[in-house]
Design brief:
- The strands form 3 sheets. This protein has a 6-stranded antiparallel beta sheet with strand order 2-3-11-6-9-12.
- Strand 2 and strand 3 form a beta hairpin.
- The protein is of the alpha+beta class.
- The protein folds into 2 domains: 156 residues, Regulatory protein AraC (Jelly Rolls, Sandwich); 105 residues, Arc Repressor Mutant, subunit A (Orthogonal Bundle), CATH 1.10.10.
- It is globular.
- The chain is built from 10 helices and 12 strands.
C-alpha cells in the first residue's frame, strides 16, 4: 500500500477585481489541502483579506490563528507568513492591499498615528459583518465601482477594531483548531445545519461545555453567534443579487419567523432587509 507523500502546495490564484491609486482588491482562491506543505510567503504591502470560504491556519510574526469565514487576515509590509490547510481543502478570500503612503495617511485620519497590526486576524464579530457581506457581493457580481469606497472602509474598520483585540492567543492547541474547523466547514457546506449546541458538540467530539469554550477561544465568537452571522451574510447576498421575496429568503436562510429575521438583520446591519435591498 502506498503512503501519500507530503507535497509543496501550489500558489493561490489571484484575480484582480479593481485597483486605484494606492489600493487593489483581488479574489484569492487557494486549492491546497492537508497533504500540501505550506511555503513561506511575504506581504509586500499592508494586507487585509476577508475570508469568504474555507478554513486555514495563518502564521506570521504577530502570531498564529485559525482563519474561518467572516474573519479578517491582517498583514504588515515586509512581514513573512505561511498558510496551512491541515483541516480541509481550499479557501477563498477577498484581499485588499494598500501602498505604504495610502495606508499611513488613512491611519492618521482614523487613529491619529501610523500603525502596524499587532494581531494576525480579526474574529467574525458583528462590527465587521456589513463589510464582510459587501465584500461577498463583489464576488457575486456586484458593481466593481464600489471597490474604492469599500477599500477605505475596510482599512478604517480594521485599524479601529485591531486596537482592541486581545494580543496573546498562542496557547490554543492544534487539536482545538481541528475540532472547530470541522464544525465550521460543516456549517459552510451543508444546508441542513443542526441548531443546538449538543449536535454541534457531537461533530467536534467534545462535551457541550468544552465545545462552547473551545469554539469561542478559537474563533472569538460563540457557536450560536457564528451560525447566526453565516445565515445573515447569506441573506444579505441574496437580497442584493436576487428578486426573491424577503420572506422566502428568510426561510431559505434558516429563519422560520419573518419578524425575528427582520429584527436580527437590523441588529446586524443597521437597517431592515427591505432598506438593505433598496440600497443596492
Amino acid at each position: 500500500m502506498s503512503i501519500p507523500r507530503e507535497r509543496i502546495s501550489s500558489p493561490p490564484t489571484s484575480r484582480l477585481i479593481a485597483s486605484g491609486d494606492g489600493w487593489t482588491v483581488s479574489d484569492i482562491v487557494c486549492t491546497a489541502g492537508p497533504r500540501d506543505r505550506p511555503f513561506e510567503e511575504g506581504h509586500t504591502q499592508t494586507s487585509i483579506a476577508i475570508v469568504v470560504g474555507g478554513t486555514f491556519q495563518y502564521r506570521s510574526s504577530t502570531g498564529r490563528d485559525l482563519m474561518t469565514p467572516g474573519s479578517w487576515l491582517l498583514g504588515n509590509p515586509g512581514e513573512s507568513f505561511t498558510c496551512g490547510h491541515d483541516h480541509g481543502i481550499g479557501d477563498r478570500c477577498v484581499a485588499f492591499s494598500y501602498s505604504p503612503d495610502f495606508f499611513e495617511h488613512l491611519a492618521y485620519d482614523v487613529w491619529g498615528q501610523s500603525i502596524r497590526f499587532k494581531v494576525p486576524r480579526l474574529p467574525p464579530i458583528r462590527a465587521l459583518s456589513p463589510l464582510v457581506a459587501k465584500a461577498s457581493t463583489i464576488l457575486a457580481g456586484d458593481d466593481p465601482g464600489v471597490c474604492e469606497e469599500l477599500s477605505v472602509r475596510v482599512a478604517a474598520r480594521a485599524i479601529e477594531v485591531a486596537q482592541g483585540v486581545q494580543l496573546s492567543r498562542a496557547g490554543i492547541a492544534p487539536s482545538s483548531w481541528a475540532r472547530v474547523a470541522r464544525v465550521v466547514r460543516m456549517i459552510e457546506n451543508e444546508e441542513e445545519i443542526p441548531l443546538d449546541l449538543n449536535s454541534l458538540a457531537l461533530v467536534a467530539r467534545l462535551s457541550p461545555y468544552h465545545f462552547l469554550r473551545t469554539f469561542e477561544e478559537v474563533t472569538g465568537t460563540t457557536p450560536h453567534q457564528y451560525l447566526l452571522r453565516v445565515r445573515l451574510r447569506r441573506a444579505a447576498i441574496f437580497l442584493r443579487s436576487e428578486p426573491t421575496r424577503i420572506s422566502d429568503i428568510a426561510l431559505r436562510c434558516g429563519f422560520g419567523d419573518i419578524s425575528n429575521f427582520n429584527r436580527t438583520f437590523r441588529a446586524e446591519f443597521g437597517v431592515n432587509p427591505r432598506t438593505y435591498r433598496s440600497m443596492a
